[in-house]
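Researcher: We plan to redesign the surface later, but first we want a full-length starting point. Tokens attached.
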């Protein structure tokens, strides 16, 4: 779609539709495309992919309009639904008067005409784009009143840091996804149980995972059908979609592919081997969002930090099978305060004062998922013990038959880099996994439903949690494929399928870890390869040091961006 800058408006136009955003008060208005003739000196800035919303990072700072500048196709879900990743954004100050050079893809219709922006200087990287964008905003803040230049230096510094974090959050983490035709916020089971009446996509979404809900609120409140075209629900999390081939004749050494990029097997494998599509979709809650040491435990609404629902989706012929798990911080009031490398956890409220909020959290969880199996991976000795003990006490006080509590001291069982001992846990809960089932739908409707979920946690709900969730999901996937006749009853997953599957879960862990802690996941080498090696331990040391640096010097600004958005 084309983006125009006029005297009083930014104008987005596609076909016969146009969305006008006022530069005076930030309000949105739907108008016919022909009204562009009525705008005062409209200048075509280039092409964009869609609207994310508006944001004001501080009450003294201007409003910014956030647009999708560039996207990348992740893949297609069953039903030919395209899923895209936001790779670059454009940030427009609503108070900037001069035409902004946002380094957008040029519009072939206009950029040779009289409406071409006066100066377009391509920049080789996003850092120059960032500095250029900030220069526009900085000059605009200072120009109206020269007397305030000295007084506004600190504000300008804050503004620059917040803008940097906003851009990095989108461009560096690569953790924002959307689909124009598929509801990424809802699992297959929730979609199959939804209303059959035709309804705009954004009105069906799960509110917990509608990341840009408040940024787009002015649009959703317009209330006319024409506005549906402009509203794009965005999730923060992770999506990867792959086609796997069940071939037991291939060797593990057939292809030397990068651990980051799975081999494209569909182009070189004979048609006699069964194929299936596997997708991993993680949805991070917009509630109690934030960085690791800035957001821990539960809040007064029963929301917990780093809450993520992960759905593993299998599609074979006309059959779609879905299995979901969640992760989330221990739902008591706790924190880690200070600038030590690993601050000691502490409880911030008494057992009695915590009960109501713990209950609020699990009452909502049971309302959504019916049953919960808690898998608590925190250490049962040492500094983590205080959090694990508080968790168990609250579970006993809650005393609900639909809540099952399983404790597994990950570090004790996997001491000496023996992460394969996670199988001890999956073997112990194997019957629970089978009883929980999974969602299974075909063209005729729902064949069976998943009855309950696993809620896995460690301290950060990152590294240990991802290893265990991947192990549980693998047990489920093998059962699903055997049920569908894709795998023989007594055979494990073929080597190449297993390798790609491991890579997907490792990528998932890295993505969620970057969103919460700022670095890739620790213990990722085991999830990625099935082996724990010295090189992986050394890499974990580097990532741990980076996490400390980010927490000490950077997380406050990222938290400010996240907090103001919500």
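Model: Full-length starting sequence:
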């Amino acid at each position: 779609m084309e983006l125009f800058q006029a005297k009083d408006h930014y104008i987005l136009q596609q076909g016969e539709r146009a969305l006008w955003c006022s530069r005076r008060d930030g309000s949105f208005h739907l108008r016919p495309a022909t009204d562009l003739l009525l705008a005062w000196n409209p200048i075509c800035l280039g092409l964009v992919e869609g609207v994310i919303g508006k944001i004001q990072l501080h009450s003294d700072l201007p409003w910014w309009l956030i647009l999708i500048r560039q996207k990348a196709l992740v893949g297609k879900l069953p039903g030919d639904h395209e899923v895209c990743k936001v790779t670059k954004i454009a940030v427009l100050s609503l108070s900037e008067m001069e035409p902004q050079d946002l380094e957008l893809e040029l519009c072939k219709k206009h950029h040779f005409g009289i409406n071409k922006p006066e100066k377009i200087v391509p920049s080789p990287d996003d850092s120059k784009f960032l500095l250029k964008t900030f220069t526009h905003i900085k000059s605009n803040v200072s120009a109206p009143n020269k007397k305030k230049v000295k007084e506004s230096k600190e504000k300008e510094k804050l503004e620059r840091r917040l803008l940097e974090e906003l851009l990095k959050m989108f461009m560096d983490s690569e953790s924002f996804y959307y689909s124009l035709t598929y509801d990424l916020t809802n699992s297959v089971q929730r979609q199959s149980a939804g209303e059959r009446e035709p309804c705009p996509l954004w009105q069906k979404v799960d509110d917990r995972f509608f990341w840009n809900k408040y940024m787009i609120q002015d649009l959703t409140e317009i209330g006319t059908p024409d506005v549906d075209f402009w509203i794009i629900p965005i999730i923060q999390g992770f999506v990867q979609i792959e086609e796997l081939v069940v071939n037991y004749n291939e060797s593990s050494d057939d292809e030397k592919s990068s651990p980051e990029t799975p081999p494209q097997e569909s182009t070189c494998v004979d048609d006699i081997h069964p194929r299936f599509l596997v997708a991993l979709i993680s949805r991070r809650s917009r509630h109690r969002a934030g960085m690791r040491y800035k957001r821990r435990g539960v809040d007064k609404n029963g929301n917990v930090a780093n809450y993520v629902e992960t759905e593993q989706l299998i599609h074979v012929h006309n059959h779609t099978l879905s299995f979901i798990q969640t992760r989330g911080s221990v739902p008591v009031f706790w924190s880690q305060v200070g600038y030590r490398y690993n601050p000691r956890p502490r409880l911030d409220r008494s057992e009695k004062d915590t009960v109501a909020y713990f209950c609020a959290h699990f009452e909502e969880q049971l309302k959504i998922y019916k049953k919960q199996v808690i898998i608590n991976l925190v250490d049962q000795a040492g500094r983590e013990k205080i959090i694990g003990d508080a968790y168990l006490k609250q579970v006993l006080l809650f005393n609900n038959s639909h809540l099952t509590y399983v404790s597994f001291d990950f570090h004790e069982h996997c001491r000496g880099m023996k992460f394969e001992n996670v199988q001890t846990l999956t073997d112990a809960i194997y019957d629970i996994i089978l009883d929980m089932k999974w969602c299974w739908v075909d063209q005729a409707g729902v064949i069976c439903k998943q009855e309950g979920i696993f809620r896995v946690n460690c301290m950060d709900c990152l590294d240990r949690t991802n290893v265990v969730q991947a192990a549980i999901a693998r047990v489920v996937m093998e059962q699903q494929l055997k049920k569908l006749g894709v795998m023989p009853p007594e055979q494990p997953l073929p080597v190449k399928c297993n390798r790609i599957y491991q890579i997907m879960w490792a990528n998932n862990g890295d993505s969620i870890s970057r969103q919460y802690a700022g670095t890739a996941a620790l213990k990722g080498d085991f999830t990625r390869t099935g082996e724990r090696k010295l090189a992986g331990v050394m890499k974990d040391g580097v990532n741990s040091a980076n996490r400390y640096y980010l927490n000490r010097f950077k997380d406050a600004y990222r938290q400010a961006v996240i907090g103001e958005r919500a």
